[in-house]
UniProtKB/TrEMBL annotation:
MYND-type domain: residues covered: 254-295
SUPFAM superfamilies linked to this entry: HIT/MYND zinc finger-like
Gene3D superfamilies assigned to the protein according to its UniProt record, in alphabetical order: 6.10.140.2220
Protein name, per record: (thale cress) hypothetical protein
Alphabetical keyword list: Metal-binding, Zinc, Zinc-finger
UniProt keyword annotation of Ribosomal protein present: no
Gene source species: Arabidopsis thaliana (Mouse-ear cress)
The organism's place on the tree of life at top rank: Eukaryota
Length: 548
């Protein structure tokens, strides 16, 4: 009886599928795809076999979602990559497959976190690569495999590719993938087979999910070589894989209708890449009504993207450790430390050489207007977004605190311990601006990591009450009595920092005050609408010994 039931259940699974997926492949034959060639099919099957042999299903479950970005949006029709989120099906048993969704939000709609089964959300399209047993394949696919000598995945499986759409009735509607979608899945499978083994398992696992391994956040970019039959003038394409997908994505707002839209569902102007839209209709309408006249200007403003020090301000490089951005690709860029073209940035020379032979002596600045006038910079220059760090430190040393200012006026050297540097490690050269502004009077030595005894302590954008690791730094200030200055993005955070400092026995040498050298670029707070700017407010503390 048991043997009979086992055979019966086995035949049911073979015909109708099992596990958390959407069932077996629809039997779509790639030979009917318009414009496809036998060489393209062979390349896709080789990529599929390579992914299968890397055995991602040993660790990955449907709850593990991956973001994928292949090339640029302009590489795809509609100026948008068709499928951007990947899910592995079958790690817990059942049909072995990978599913691709148009966005992370669609993947979440289809993935029921409390169930082993897939939800069927109406009108969601899923690109499926189902590894089907050869014995279950339709005759048309068997003939294709035999006639083209296609590579097998494992010992007896071949990929069946289709696009499934969930209908309001709960049924599935299938269509053949397009040639463009097949190019995409080729690059994705090649990249996934290379990068998924690099996922690192976190020590602390998810409670109540013994089969669900938790991985550390991950992002990696690899170059995938196009086969000659798929290439479009490029031998390689950059493929970025991230887990979880959209880690840096948030809600954006359509420039035209002001509708809130998730980042991975938005589109941007294909020319300037600056303006965000909820869809092509708003993009076309905005072009007719206004954007046509400013698009070239916006393109010039966006020209700093991926250049010089500006790279650290962009999420494109968030996977690179602080201080380890790769060197500039060209000699011209290496000389232009601010990443701008010749003539568009102040040369890295002493200030007096730019200001009619100004005599030696400290240059005192009150705000950004003074600095821009000093270097004859146009008000449209964006250097403030990086220079707010060194100029905030210069402001503290020359205008906020009397102790360092007196040392510098006497021509002495000051040592500053700069606490908690991150992106500043990629902007070391920008801090030379401080000595240029000193104009030959005294020097400032900035120690970002080192044992030297400092004259002053500074921590910019510190979020003092948000990280327990600051406790040691606060204790050090308490023990040495050296003046310390913090900056933060929000006035409310400075109020919390005052409480932390007061509890540590520190007094305030400088009250919370606006920083005239804050960045004018507003940041978006995740959980509040407080005004939020880099280095927006300054707070000074010092330990004062009390007589008992």
């Amino acid at each position: 009886m048991d043997l009979h039931l086992k055979n019966l259940f086995g035949r049911f699974q073979e015909q109708f599928g099992s596990g958390p997926g959407l069932g077996p492949g629809s039997g779509v034959c790639l030979m009917i795809v318009e414009g496809i060639s036998s060489n393209i099919i062979q390349s896709i099957f080789r990529a599929s076999a390579s992914l299968y042999s890397s055995e991602p299903w040993k660790r990955l479950r449907p709850g593990h979602l991956f973001g994928v970005r292949v090339g640029k949006d302009s590489d795809w029709s509609g100026k948008r990559q068709p499928f951007q989120c990947v899910q592995f099906i079958g790690g817990d048993g059942g049909d072995i497959a990978i599913y691709m969704y148009r966005s992370m939000s669609y993947a979440l709609k289809m993935t029921d976190g409390d169930s082993w089964e897939m939800a069927r959300d109406p009108n969601v399209e899923v690109f499926r690569v189902t590894y089907e047993l050869e014995s279950l394949m339709l005759p048309s696919n068997k003939r294709m495999v035999k006639s083209l000598s296609l590579e097998v995945s494992g010992t007896d499986r071949f990929p069946i590719m289709d696009v499934a759409r969930c209908m309001t009735s709960g049924e599935l509607q299938f269509r053949s993938p397009t040639l463009e979608e097949l190019r995409l899945v080729f690059a994705v499978m090649k990249a996934l087979s290379l990068v998924h083994p690099l996922l690192l398992q976190e020590e602390k696992q998810v409670r109540g999910l013994p089969r669900m391994i938790k991985f550390s956040p991950f992002i990696e970019t690899v170059d995938v070589q196009w086969p000659s039959e798929m290439g479009k003038g490029h031998d390689f394409v950059a493929v970025t894989v991230s887990h979880p997908p959209g880690g840096e994505a948030g809600l954006r707002q359509c420039t035209m209708c002001e509708k809130a839209i998730h980042k991975d569902e938005s589109v941007c102007c294909s020319h300037c890449r600056a303006t965000i839209y909820c869809g092509l209709d708003c993009e076309k309408r905005h072009w007719r009504e206004m954007h046509r006249s400013v698009c070239s200007l916006y393109e010039a403003m966006m020209s700093i993207h991926k250049k010089g020090m500006w790279r650290r301000q962009c999420s494109c490089y968030s996977h690179q450790p602080f201080g380890l951005l790769q060197c500039f690709s060209t000699e011209a860029q290496s000389e232009s430390w601010r990443g701008l073209e010749d003539g568009d940035y102040p040369q890295d020379l002493p200030i007096q050489n730019l200001n009619n032979g100004r005599s030696p002596g400290m240059i005192l600045l009150s705000d950004w207007s003074d600095y821009y006038d000093l270097l004859c910079l146009p008000r449209s220059s964006l250097v403030y977004d990086i220079l707010c760090y060194p100029l905030t430190l210069y402001h503290i040393l020359t205008s906020v605190s009397n102790h360092p200012k007196n040392l510098l006026l006497k021509g002495k050297e000051m040592t500053v311990h700069y606490l908690g540097p991150e992106r500043e490690l990629d902007w070391i050269k920008a801090f030379a601006e401080i000595n240029h502004l000193l104009n030959g009077l005294g020097t400032v030595q900035i120690i970002m990591i080192g044992p030297e005894v400092p004259s002053d302590l500074s921590a910019l954008n510190c979020d003092l009450d948000g990280y327990s690791s600051w406790a040691g730094a606060v204790e050090a200030v308490n023990n040495t009595g050296i003046p310390c200055f913090f900056t933060d993005k929000r006035e409310e955070a400075c109020g919390n920092a005052k409480t932390v400092s007061r509890n540590a026995g520190l007094n305030f040498s400088h009250p919370v005050a606006p920083n005239p050298f804050r960045s004018p670029v507003r940041s978006c707070g995740k959980s509040s609408n407080f005004p939020c700017y880099s280095n927006s407010f300054i707070l000074g503390v010092v330990y004062i010994r009390r007589l008992v």
